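Researcher: Let's try something more involved. This one mixes different molecule types, so please make sure each is placed in the same coordinate frame as the others.
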Amino acid sequence: MAGNRRDFLKLAGLTAVGATAVSSIKAPTAAASTADSHTEASTDGVRLAMVIDLRKFSKDDALIERCVEACHREHNVPNWEDDPKNEVKWIWSEDFETAFHSQEFHFIREDLKGKPTLLLCNHCNNPPCTRVCPTQATWKRDADGIVMMDWHRCIGCRYCVVACPYGSRSFNWKDPRPAIEDITIDYPTRMRGVVEKCTFCEERLARGLEPACVEACGNDEIVFGDLNDPSSKVRQLLAERMAIRRKAGLGTQPEVYYVIDDPRTLQETAPAAVVEGAEGGDHA
Amino acid sequence: MYDAGKIIVGLVVFVVLATSPLWFNALTEETPEAPKLTLPTNGSTECVEATEYMRASHMDLLNQWRDEVVRTGQRDYVSSSSGKVFDMSLSRTCMDCHSNKAEFCDACHTYMAVTPYCWDCHVEPKGAN
Amino acid sequence: MLEKALTGNRTYWTWIFFLLAVIGAGTACWFWQFRTGLTVTGLSRDVVWGLYIAQFTFLVGVAASAVMVVLPYYLHNYKAFGKMTILGEFLAIAAVIMCMLFIFVDMGRPDRIFNVFLHPTPHSMMFWDTVALGGYLCLNILISRVSLSCERRGEAPPKWIKPIIVLSIPWAVSIHTVTAFLYSGLAARPFWMTAILAPRFLASAFAAGPALLILLALIVRKLTTFDPGKEAIQKLAEIVTYAMLLNVFFVAMELFTALYSDIPEHVLHFQFLFMGLDGNNTLAPWMWLSVVLAVVALVILVNPTTRRSETTLVVGCMAVFGSLWIDKGLGMVIAGFTPSPLGKVTLYAPTAPELTISLAIYAIGILIVTGLYKIALEVRGQMKV
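Model: All components are placed in one shared frame. Result:
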């Protein structure tokens, strides 16, 4: 009798394992239908990029604060100023030398010295973060090249945060709702335990709007568009001016460019545009 | 079987306890009240799909919407019953008509002891009580 | 056979209840962490992995080390290890379960753990780590169960178990290699992005694991009539010695490449570890302790007289384990995040809940080892009455 009981338990166990295995055989097809997460530099389709024209930013933070505020308000990004350990940010500023610290700038043109520089997710064309995600909760969308977040699927392992060379990603160490001052009803918040970052305002792009930070600027300080379209503003700006990208040598192909030409070159194309800091000398 | 007496008695007690909701209700002849739903007050009479379908499958529909919007960026849904195009959005489409979450969504969910996690992130419309 | 773990004398049950108390405290802390979020730990935006993942990394090594008894015995007929293989396999089971628990408590949404299986992602090393660890656990459960139940019946094990045992050998190597791959393919973290990381992991695993196995075997010998045999202990000690020498050599290689090239993104992490950076030097005393312990360990282990004397051997094994635990379980993971990709230094120190949960997971592992060893010893009739 004892032997039969053991055999029964073995059979029950094997059946349970078998049933789970059979039901999970469907899983690979789910993986196949999701967007590819490791696209090479694409020449067809849309390749969204952003060009931040540093010539048009002064050393005073006002415009930067408007950009950050516009983004964080629109997307219900929590404000953890009083509890900095839990900091969450999609877009922020560091001074120029920190933003490009692997360049080891020691002697630098006066207008760039200490200049506050906007930083955000670079929506790389060869993203290391999507490569490591075990569930494809972050992946590069085929249609628009946006490195997207699926907050329904994220398991909060933070591997993508580890893999990002730019520090663009934040984790929700606790429930963000209490730290959101004014909730925007149209856009969801996130929950504790998931990673979040800039999504190039994909929900605004779907409605034909520009990203929130781009809209917060009035004067093409940030330019946004499709690199695969030769007539786009981003392509034109990159064709005329010198732009650098963060840690480009790592092969991530970041799609956020920073124009670093001397602000006096602004007068060449738009004589009416006067930018502070063009004379140099003041480093607030 | 060792301890047959104890085991069989134990099994019978367990089955009785486990099925107690069923025979208790049958014996006391109570008909539970169906949940009362407050229908939309904005004049809309047509949902995204037919009522019977929505009752049975709105969770599947929402899951499908979630995957389409987030993973492919597609936001247009063509209703199979009316052919109309809807924006695939819980907050903007569903809650536009069903703005009283407490008396619509929660009424059935509480009754069925179901807690969907949508509202951990998606924001309920203001003044929805 | 499992029921043999449920009988015991007063000492046994006191030990079990002590472990259960620690586990209870940790479980309560974990429920709090699950409700509130990982904010209860010392982690922050810059240091997103800390004590939990570091313990996971260290314990994968301990799990892999069972191969150091299995390989000589099954592939090369080294009879002296005959009585030890089951202890190694049981230790591997406990270690793998602890690894899985450390991952589980570190997740932001552990309720979504099945997403890893519902959406398998072959280009993610974390997916393969899950597969490798799960497979290794199943292998060890199967192998240990079959060999022990055959031993109990006085029979030879069935023929089909031999290829499975042989499979467990490269599989053991693979679990620690894939864990190293989690770290060594990340362009964002120059401290970890070194080809020698996987060999270094394996060398430290094959030193720390067998060292622990020696200590466990000697403890069991003290408490029961089990005797692994002098030859088995000595052979294991030699394995620990060579593995530790290799590990120290690999560390020296890393130091040379980083310090001689003088590239800041390599140097700064070592500077943080051994000297502190921007006023943050919490790890420095630990790292130097690790160095001292490594020297003590090698002095004892390389010298045949001190290696053969069991008193000094015990000190040597504890020094090996301690040194490598500090290296992998404290230094390696945290240093990868300091400085951050933007060059900033953020202090990380585990909080009380974090430590309690970690201790509880260690207690679960010790409980499993206790229970499984008790079963093996009862089967062999070697428990002291």
